[in-house]
Amino acid sequence: MVDNNSTEIKKEKHLTKNDYINHFNPTVYLNQFFVVQNTNLPTTVNDFFISVVIKVLHEHKNKLQGKQRVLEFGCGPVLEGALLLAQYFNEIWLCDYAPLNLQLIQEWKDNKLSAFDWKPYFNFILDKIPQDNRKNLVEYEAKLRQALINGKLFRCDVNGDNSLFVDCDEPEDKFDMIYTKLCLEAACSTYDVLQRTINRFTDLLKPGGILLICSCRNSTVYDVDNYSFRVLPINEEIIRTAFVKTGKLTEPICMSDDNGMHPSDRGDGVMINYAFKT
Predict the structure, then answer these.
(1) Which contacts (CB < 8 Å, 24+ apart) does range 261-265 have?
(2) Over the stretch 171-217, which tens digit does the pLDDT of each residue have?
(3) Which InterPro entries does the record match to this protein (predicted)?
(4) Nearby residues of 200 by Cβ (< 8 Å), 6 or more positions away
(5) Which pairs from 123-129 meet CB under 8 Å and 24+ separation?
(6) Hey, where are the domains in the chain?
């Protein structure tokens, strides 16, 4: 009874960004959502995000192929997006607020035995790539690891006074693409912070660079390991308005899935918004 009560108390306490370091368990998160077994297949949400990102990257491959640098902002402990991005970019800069998330990425990058086994999930991703008949996991992993070695792994914070980067200088040569998934709604406490963050993303992009944001729609809370984390509710119009307000992005393209919802999330769908810097 005591343990049950304790769990309920934890679930009722909606944690904020500042609680991520102490209460977000990346190992539990990976085991819950990224382990692929016959009885534990990736969710339809993962399927939606992967399929749409593959489509967008392929449609714009002439603009992206062979470009130098991409930033994944708020990567968490996850290498899903990075695997796809590494096929187009020579350098991947990964950043996250929580040091333990970055530690798990570093373990995979260093090929340590303790690293999370991404191979089954990577194979799930490769099965979604219709444009590549070879689908050689060894080559995909090699490109990813090299892109991570060429890039940087560092902390970030949307609440920074002068920069999104905590322990890394912004590059003089800006990014060809910025990608973020399920981060802004969790990291930004207000719509002003959200707008400022998207403004900063735009400033970090080269002309012609692409900003792509994957989000849960109209969510207020998501649960991981008996803890509830507050989320800023966002939808297509909020993101569109934020893009337009930068004055530096093309009209955003939005794709959404009304039936898709992250199993830990309390929203009403998922969406991807992207635009190019003018």
Answers:
(1) 261/45, 261/216, 262/43, 262/45, 262/182, 262/216, 262/219, 262/222, 263/33, 263/43, 263/45, 264/32, 264/33, 264/222, 264/223, 264/224, 265/216, 265/219, 265/221, 265/222, 265/231
(2) 989 999 999 999 999 999 999 999 999 999 999 999 999 999 999 99
(3) NNMT_TEMT_trans, SAM-dep_methyltransferase, SAM-dependent_MTases_sf
(4) 163, 164
(5) 123/36, 124/36, 124/41, 124/42, 125/50, 125/80, 125/83, 125/84, 128/47, 128/50, 128/51, 128/54, 129/54
(6) 14-277
